[in-house]
Amino acid sequence: MADQTRRERLLTFLLLPIIVVAVLVLTGVMFRSSFQLEKLREQSVVEATLLLANEKADRLDKNIIDQDNAVRSTVDVTDRAGFGSRWLETAAIQTPTVRAVFLVDLTAPGHDVVAVASRAPGPENERFRRLCVEFMLSEMKIDVPPYDQLRHLHTAYRGQSYLVSHWQTEHRGRRYLTVVWHDVPRIVHDLFPTLYTDLQQGRVNVSDQDGRIVFGPSLARRGPVLGRQFETTLYKWTVNVSMASGEELAVAVQRRRVLEMVLVGLSSLVVIFGLIVIVVAAAQERRLANLKSDFVANVSHELKTPLSLVRMFSELLQSGRVENDEKRRQYLQIIVGESDRLASLIENVLDFAKVERGRQAYHFAEASLGDVVTRAVDVCRLRAEREGTERELEPPPALGSARIDERALEIAVINLIDNAMKYAPGHVSVSVRRAPGALEIRVADRGPGIAPEDRKRIFERFVRGKPTEGKQVRGSGIGLALVKHIAEAHGGKAWVEPGTPKGSVFVLSVKS
Ligand code: ADP
Predict the structure, then answer these.
(1) Which tens digits make up the pLDDT trace of 132-146?
(2) Quick check: bond before 146 cis, omega within 30?
């Protein structure tokens, strides 16, 4: 027993705090991982945006290079007279952003332009030619091998942006440079919109080397922006992509975080509630175990007392020393009375055991409740007379019959009268009356009564009231529990009311 208590204490004082701490740690870890997940989510958004920026930049490079290759496959450096004529045939379709193609003889001093093919002849071409020879050639790194490689120059003169593609070709010991002049405004106005049609609700723009937007909307209000320079062609410019709409993402993340927190909080509450239930159940179990051990002690005592009385008076009679007839009759009465008490106690215990195991079977039949009560009062007659208790049985009114288990109800009424004689000797009155939908048996005494806080409790099994006036009355604590069970089996209830002017009234109702 002591071992068990120690184990229970260990459970309460060691295990429970450990479980609570474990739950808290778990909650903490879950919160942290939720935050980490969010960071990862943000990271993946950054990665996705970067990927998008790269893809946007690569699209332009690929388009320009495709056009360059188309020019390269159609211009012939050996045919000066017909230079670029084949290219011009398909230029509008295949190379929409190319304005003109120039052929520069690099071997000749002064690097002069020796042939020109232009989609729009005019003074512009001459201006570009001069610009090319005077400024651009020096930027083109024409002396750096490999010479035949396609290269690009992205530069600006007088606030205007230029993009040229160029490569060198050797012919009969001379080096030629083919210069392809891309129309930058056209790239911006025609090519960009077709390349970036999927503008993702204004998430992309292009800015120049000074940060000025040359194409697309301002992204300043759209949260964080990732930029990537064009790698090969318009390499002084940058394509910018705003991260998946900052606020939308924040709202979604916030909502999910709240949900996760609520879930984690709820689970913790459930665990803590479960723990409280376990602790309360353990405490109740402990209380019941204590009550049970009291019950065993009480019942043993209850059995022992009448048994010793029976034995003592039998021995007296047996010894033949009792000469007085009156005394002999008195002793015999005590023996019979105590045997009755023993029998009813044993019956109570056996019935209670059946109830506890759920084996109590009731046998209902049509019978008169008044007769049952009269019989029960009769059974207690002898003891009442001996103990000097006045019994009063109001003649039961004509209640008719009800479906009842006669034996069970008799036991219940005997228990109530027995209690009245035990706890409130002097006067007990028993009555039966009709109430709405029920028949009530009322057993009233003029004893000490029951404290309001105990009125419900005393119907629980093994529960015994506090001794009144320091007088300990014998009992087992199962009588009223049995009464309650019997009443409920009859579709009724059992309760106690304060008596007038004092004492208590125990009521057992059965459904009528
Ligand atoms: P027991 O009488 O064996 O203790 P019961 O279940 O019959 O067990 O009663 C439970 C408790 O209710 C008693 O211990 C007693 O304190 C209280 N009780 C029952 N009947 C009366 C009564 N008529 N007057 C005062 N107290 C009572």
Answers:
(1) 999 999 899 888 888
(2) yes
